[in-house]
Amino acid sequence: MAWPILFAPLVPVPVLAVLSTVAIVIVLLGLRRRARGTLLRALGFALLLLVLAGPRWQVQTTTGLHDIALVIRDRSPSMTIGRRAAMSDAAFHHLMAHVPQDTDVRVVTLRGAGDDGTKLFGTMRDALATIPPERLAGIIALTDGEATDRPIPIPKGVAVSGLIAARGNQTDRSLDLIAAPRYGLVGHHVALRFAVLDHGVADRGTPVPVTVSVDGKAVARVMAPVGSAMTVKLRIAHAGTSVVAVAAEPLAGEVSRANDQAVFDLAGVRRRLTVLLIAGAPNPGLRTWRLLLKADPAVRLVNFTILRLPTEPLAAPVNDMALIPFPVNQLFGRDLGKFDLIIMDQFANDDLLLPPYLANITAHVRAGGALLVETGPEFEGENSLARSPLEPILPVQPFGDGTVTGGFTPKLTGDGKRDPVTAALAHDRLAPWYRYESVQQTGGVALLRTPGPARAPLLVLAHAGKGRVAVLLSDQFWLWARGALAHDPAMAGPAEALLRRTVHWLLGEPSLAARQLTAQFDGTTLDITRQSLKGGPPGSAMVTDPSGKTTTIALHEAGPGRYQARLAANAQGVWQVRAHGMTAYAGAANDDPAEQADLAASDRIIGPLANHTGGHIIWLGKTPNPSWSGLLHRRHAALVTGERDIPIPPALPTAILALALLTAAWWRERG
User: What is the count of structural domains for the chain?
Assistant: First the structure.
C-alpha cells in the first residue's frame, strides 16, 4: 500500500499565497517588536493556512500480480544437429510441468527462417515489447547459444539465462566463401577466394587441405591456413553452368561437417560472338536479320550486301560510284577464323566466291564454326551453293520442282515438337508463307515442314564435324516479322523467336541442345529433366547425393521429348545425376550462410549477458531437467484496485484550534 500526500486547497492558490504572505509579515513584525503572544499567533496562522491548503492522505488498495517468465525456444536449423532439439524439448516440458506459483510463462518460438541466421535478440526484443517490465521476472533461452544479431539492453533487475543443448562448448570448422565468381569468359580464369575458420579451438594459421572440384572433378588441391584468405584460379572450360564445390578436410571432433564445404554455380559465357551476314541481293528479309542480330548484346554483326556482280556493266563511270569492293580475300581467307557464324542470305554461287574460298568455309565449319543458309530461287540450278565446295556440309540438295509457290502454313515436325530450338513455338500461331524450295534431305533433322502430303522440309539443322549447319528453305519468314510489326494476326508469326533460337543453337547455346540432361534445385527439391528427340519409354535416372549414396528415380513424360522427375534433397553439396549415358550436376548450397557460419554450441554470446544480468548458463547435456531456482527474480508487482482520500488534519477541529491560538495570542498581547 502507498500513502502519498495530496493537497486540495479550499481557496484558490493565489489567495492562499497572499494570506501566507500577510501571516508571515505579521509574525515577523511581532518578532521585531518582541510582542508577547507572537509564537501563539504564528502557530495559529500556520494551522489556519494548513486547513486552507487541504492536505489529504491518499489510501490505495492493491492486488498482487503474477510474475512473467519469458521463455524463448530456439528452433533454428542449427538446432537439428545431433540431440539438440530433443534435449531442448525435454528441458522445456520439464520446466512447464514445474512452473512456480504466481508465475505466468510467455513462450516465444524462434524459427530462424530466411537467410539471415538466428535472430535471437531480435526475437527477444519483440517479445519484451509486449511484457510490462515491472512484471518480468526473467528471460530463459532454450538454445544452442548461437545468434547472428547483437545483444540488446535488458530491463533492470531482469536475469537472462541460457539453457544450452550440449554438454559444453563445442568445436566446428566452416568454409567461408569470400568471393565466389558467378560467371566468367570461356577459356579465361576467374579468382575464387575463401577462408577456413575453426570455432572453439585456437589453431589459427594451421594448414588445412582444401579440394576444389568442378562438376564432380577435382581441379585444385591447396593447403589453406586457418583464419587466412586463400585464392585459387579456376579456368572456365565451357559455356553453360558448372557446379563448383570447395571442401575442407574435417576438424577432428567437430560437431558437424555440413559447413566444411561450400557450393556455387559458375556460368561460362562466351565473348561477344562475331556474325558475318552476307546477302546475295537486297531483299525484304535482310532488315529482319539486321534488327535481330544488332539487338542481341552477345553478337557483333558484320554485314555485306551484294548490290552488283563484278561481271555486270556499270551504269556510270567508276569514279562516280559509291560502292566498295567486296573484300573476298580478307573475309574468306585471312579473317575467316574470326567469325563464329556465317549467314548466307539468298546467296548464289555466281563466281563471286571462288571454290577455294567456299572450301575455306567448309573447313571452318568442320573445325567448329557455324553456317546458316537461307535459300530462295537461287538455290536451284547450276549456281546453287549445293553444287559448290559447300555441298559436303549441307544437309539438303535441290530436288524436284525447285521453287514452289502458293500459300501454306508451316508446321512443326515430330522432331520440331521435341527439339528445344522450336518446341517453344508449338503453341504459337503460324501465319502462311508463299514460297519454298523443294529439296531432298540428306542429313540432319527437319524441324519445320510444309503441310499436306508433300511434307517438304523448311528448316533443317545438322552437325558437320565439330561445327553446326542450318538451312532455311524459304525466304518468307519476313512476312511474320512484318505482321507482328503491323499487329496483323493474319500475317504475324514467331519470326524473331525462330531466328534467334536457331542462331543461338548454331552458336552452341547449351540449353538448346537436342539431347541433354539437366539438374537444378528448387529450394530443397532436385528437379531432373532429360531432353531427347527419340521417343520410347521415359526410363529412370541414377542420383548420387553428396555422401555417395545412389538412388534410382523413375522419370515421367512432361512433354514431347521431355522427361522429368523431382526428388527431395536436403543434403548440402554436389549431386550427380546420370541417365541414358549423360551426366549432370547440381549444387545444393547453403540457403542460410549466416546460420551455417558457426554450428558449435557455446556460451560465447549469451554467457556474458547472463553474467551481467545475474542469470545462469545451464548445459542441458549435464543437467537435462533444470529447475526454476535462480532463473527468476521475484518482482512483487501489484495492481491498484481502489483509492480514498482522508483529510489531514481534520478541518473543523484544526480551524477551532487555530482561532483559539490566535485569540490567546491577542489576549496575551493585551495583558
Answer: 5
